[in-house]
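Have a close read of the entry that follows and walk me through the local backbone shapes. See right below:
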Amino acid sequence: MAPEVYVDQSDDAQVDGDLPFTPGTARSALSRKVFRSVWLGTTSSNVGTWMQNLALGVLAYDLTHSASYVALIGFAQLGPLFALSILGGALADVVDRKRLLVICQVEQLLFSLVLAWTAAQHHPSTLLIFLCVLAIGIGNAVNAPAFTAVLPLLVPKEDLPGAVSLQSVQMNLSRVIGPAIAGVLLPVVHPSGIFVINAVTYLFAVYVIVRVAIPSVKAPAHDSIAQRLLGGFAVARRDPLVRYCLVTVATISFFCLPFVGLMPVIAARDLHIAPSGSIYGWLYAIFGLGAALGAVSVGSVFVTLSRRTLIRGGLGAFTVFLALFGLVGNIFWAFPTVFLLGYAYFVTITSLSTTLQAHIPNEVRGRVMALWIMGFGGTVPLGLLVAGSVASATSVRTVVLAGAAVAALVTLMAWLTTATENTDLRTI
């Protein structure tokens, strides 16, 4: 395995009394100056992204009142992750990652402005909205593997659990802050204004990426194009631990996660609240808050536990709370249920991601993490397309409960599998 590459900021790792933070915790990772800068910059950008995601769901439902169109917009957001993550992963291992990240951020900024102009029209084109969202999704699909591959290079290996935990926190803290802000601003600035704000937040990410030193780790020059594109599959085929993590996350994302994209429909039909109202914004934010706390728990209160234990326990809790969310019929019970659902989900996801990141070598990290991104985000829109059709033919409650049934099977397999039995997941 190639040695870990990171920018040493050991002086920043000192606290009162010159005592270092406990290795592996979120606090220790955040004490690394370069990691901290990138984390803060991308958090600002992701807040804008989740403001836009909430506004998109509301706009799609208000224009059509169709679960299928809401699902289609969700597909445009995340579908490119499935189709293009392999390409993004290959690029991340052979080109300058900093330049690639900047180009992708700028592309998303520009199409967010086009989306804002489209939404501001008297009769917005549903087709043009779809195409703009698809273009933004393409930029994100190419960007994501490179950014995920950079993360472990910004901290020493012993701080990787905390770094991955914080990365998950960033993703989900933005789910809290973004929808909360959007819920307040949406009645005032309308979806077009939210899209402009999101475009501006990309500038924060560009500024940070340009200023920091990002180590470059490239694949061997003799690799063929096919090896560069399919290298992640080769690793997954021969490594049972990698295969287990990827199959688990893909299964959950396809069968269990469509409820996130169909949240506006759940709000209107099952919880009897307006998707364009502030209560819906807070419901979305509470899910993100639970997810953020679940992620940070992996790098703090649960840091000494076996990741295998966390994966199994997290899956079991996720199954229970997903089923409860499918049965909830009023907003009062929806808030605590969706909070616990988000918490259990990201305890599981963060544990899986930390296990995978710590296990794979740097020279194939971009390509393997491209498969993770395909499983984590790319399969969600495919499941959402199916779920949208099923929800239109039956009910959205049917979709959620079916996802809970699949989650129960995944939990059972987690207890039965031997893929990780020969590895101490606390030490990899």
